[in-house]
Amino acid sequence: MNATSSREGIVDLRSDTVTLPTEAMLERMQRAPLGDDGREGDPTVRELEARGAALTGKEAGLFVPSGTMGNLLAMLAHAERGMDVFADGGAHLFNSELGSVVTIAGLVPKSMPGRRGAMDEAALEEAIGVSSRPGLIAMETTHNGAGGAVVPLSHMARIHALGQANGIAVHLDGARLFNASVALGVPAARIAEHTDSVMVCLSKGLSAPVGSLLCGAAAFIARARGLRKLVGGTMRQSGVVAAAGLVALDTMIERLREDHAAAKRLATALTWLDPTLADPGQVQTNILRIDVAGSSHDAAAWAAGVKHQGILVQASGPAQLRLVTHRHIDNEAVARTIGAFAAVRRRPRPTDAATY
């Protein structure tokens, strides 16, 4: 398999969700002991749940099909309909999962001002004080909207203390928790200790094909397990995919630093092309947000231009691109991406992005 992509000649930087399972994962999937996870239990799933709980320092874990479902179950288990949920205004929970928040969980989103994923603590305390039904505080690290920023542990500790002082649970959207762990040089449990529950994705940089884990206290996970059935999340012989998750947790965490280094190289090179495009000092993990507002093309034109050369990136609004590095992005892929951006930058402003 081409190291840069599952499709010959394509460098896919749209997300780390495009990662394919390793040979070790596929082999483990073939020989995984199986059972009915909705009845007596699947032994491979139970092993994965225990492993996830241990890594995050929580009492128990629950295997779910997606990170969105994991966050939804946390909201349903922690809070009641009509309660307020507080999160940074740029949080994935409010920008991409709002339907789960409002329609299914029935919570009222309370958007907090913040900086690089860290909520304004004074504003949060004030909002909690005037709330008639405070239900949940949600944090996110790494923070997708803030370009993979790692929320400081000291900030997380203060937010957790604020929640405890007011009797409000704190949930962590840790879709890329292990990226944060590697970036900080601390175990994932050191981050998750500042939360009452945490969701982690296995299908992003860790390269498992499917699944996420929700971890927390045993009583909380027991509630979430019942709620998982309610929302259709029971997967029966799901040890087939849980097996890949075990390999991911055992073998793929430390290599995430390679993805972080690739993102830094991209940012540095793009800064040489145009200092307004990126700031390498702001790149902490594997997500790179590129501001094209000061360039000669809008985001759609940039995306179309590099796509013409086999580079896939995500246009996030009219003036921003998102590039996400992962294990299929090797040195050759980085070099090709830089070359594609250089070529597009040299072109005159198009009248129509389709001309690419």
Mean pLDDT: 94
Structural class: alpha/beta
According to CATH, the fold-level topology of the largest domain is Aspartate Aminotransferase, domain 2
CATH superfamily assignment of the largest domain?
A: Type I PLP-dependent aspartate aminotransferase-like (Major domain)
The span between the termini is 28 Å
Residue share in helix: 40-55%
Count of spatially separate domains: 2
The main β sheet shows up as:
7 strands, mixed
Write the layout of secondary structure elements.
Layout: E1 11-12, H1 23-30, H2 43-56, E2 60-64, H3 67-78, E3 84-88, H4 92-95, H5 98-104, E4 108-112, E5 114-115, E6 118-119, H6 121-130, E7 134-140, H7 153-165, E8 169-174, H8 177-184, H9 188-192, E9 197-201, E10 212-216, H10 218-230, H11 239-251, H12 256-273, E11 287-291, H13 299-307, E12 311-312, E13 314-315, E14 320-324, H14 331-346
Parallel strand pairs: 1-12, 3-4, 3-7, 7-8, 8-9
Antiparallel strand pairs: 2-10, 5-6, 9-10, 11-14, 13-14
